UniProtKB/TrEMBL annotation:
<feature type="domain" description="AB hydrolase-1">
    <location>
        <begin position="34"/>
        <end position="266"/>
    </location>
</feature>
<dbReference type="InterPro" id="IPR050471">
    <property type="entry name" value="AB_hydrolase"/>
</dbReference>
<keyword id="KW-0378">Hydrolase</keyword>
<dbReference type="InterPro" id="IPR000073">
    <property type="entry name" value="AB_hydrolase_1"/>
</dbReference>
<dbReference type="InterPro" id="IPR029058">
    <property type="entry name" value="AB_hydrolase_fold"/>
</dbReference>
<protein>
    <submittedName>
        <fullName>Alpha/beta hydrolase</fullName>
    </submittedName>
</protein>
<dbReference type="GO" id="GO:0016787">
    <property type="term" value="F:hydrolase activity"/>
</dbReference>
<dbReference type="Pfam" id="PF00561">
    <property type="entry name" value="Abhydrolase_1"/>
</dbReference>
Length: 280
């Protein structure tokens, strides 16, 4: 029997800490360390690129969940990265897994850092994509950039992610269109869209994260793969270089002519590199 793909993975729920978390899982579910995906700003389950999820699921048990108050998960949305990390820890505890790998994209990468600092014994390896450290350059202005590109999207009739995630070069524009088409491949039992209330709570969390004093990232001893495009407008690419400098066991992968969504634009190159990193 063919294993289910991300676009057919059933919607599930799991109770933890008074919250009913919505999640999906697929891939190898016997042996090995599961990979927990941590979502970006305004993302629900349907915002992950099927090529990336399916690629990692060829060798790993992959779990993707909505934080509380997001998508189909219940509860009031968190308005701090620290609270999102605590919610993620509760979710991971409820899965019964003592050790996980984390794949955090954008805001999810910030949550992953906080989890590793709070509960290092739970984390084996991390992939941090399009993200930055607390107090990182430009992170407190993410809301301003997102609002601008929301308006650009409304004015041009395009999805704002075309501007937020990809460069405006011919290759970047083409990659954005292909990515947005892949996000529509799931046609049934899709997740609920994020609410305005939840989106604004996440913007408050990002603004506070960008204004926080730097954390002592040298305490994170796990292997970390840091990935970004060289022209990230949302979380400036300099933050990826800063993470690589401060995380003692890190590897940096920067894609040329790519923006915030570099892992989606270059999924064919990124996925085997991510698998090799997780296998080492």
């Amino acid at each position: 029997m063919t294993a289910p793909r991300w676009t057919q993975a059933p919607n599930r729920t799991l109770e933890a800490g008074g919250v009913r978390f919505a999640y999906r899982e697929l891939g190898r579910q016997h042996g090995g360390t599961p990979v927990v995906f941590l979502n970006h700003l305004a993302a629900v389950l349907d915002n992950w690129d099927p090529r990336v999820v399916d690629g990692l699921a060829t060798r790993h048990h992959v779990i993707v969940f909505d934080n509380r108050g997001i998508g189909a998960s219940t509860g009031a949305p968190a308005d701090s990265i620290e609270q999102m990390a605590l919610d993620a820890i509760r979710f991971i505890q409820a899965t019964g897994f003592a050790l996980v790998d984390l794949f955090g994209f954008s805001m999810g990468g910030m949550v992953a850092q906080e989890i590793a600092l709070r509960e290092p014994q739970r984390v084996r390896r991390m992939i941090l994509a399009g993200t930055g450290p607390a107090g990182g350059a430009g992170i407190s202005r993410v809301g301003r950039i997102a609002h601008l590109d929301l308006l650009r999207g409304l004015h041009t009739g395009q999805d704002p992610k075309q501007f937020l995630f990809f460069t405006r070069t011919p290759s970047g524009i083409a990659a954005g269109k292909a990515f947005l088409a892949r996000l529509q491949e799931r046609t049934q039992h899709r997740d609920r869209a994020i609410t305005v209330r939840a989106y604004l709570a996440q913007l408050r969390a990002l603004k506070a994260w960008g204004r926080q004093p730097p954390a002592e990232l040298s305490r994170i001893r796990q292997p970390v793969l840091i990935v970004n495009g060289d022209q990230d407008r949302m979380v400036p690419s300099s933050n990826s270089h800063e993470l690589a400098r401060r995380l003692p066991n890190s590897t940096l992968l920067i894609y040329p002519d790519a923006g915030h969504g570099g892992v989606f634009q270059h999924h064919a190159d990124f996925t085997p590199k991510a698998l090799a990193f997780l296998a080492n």
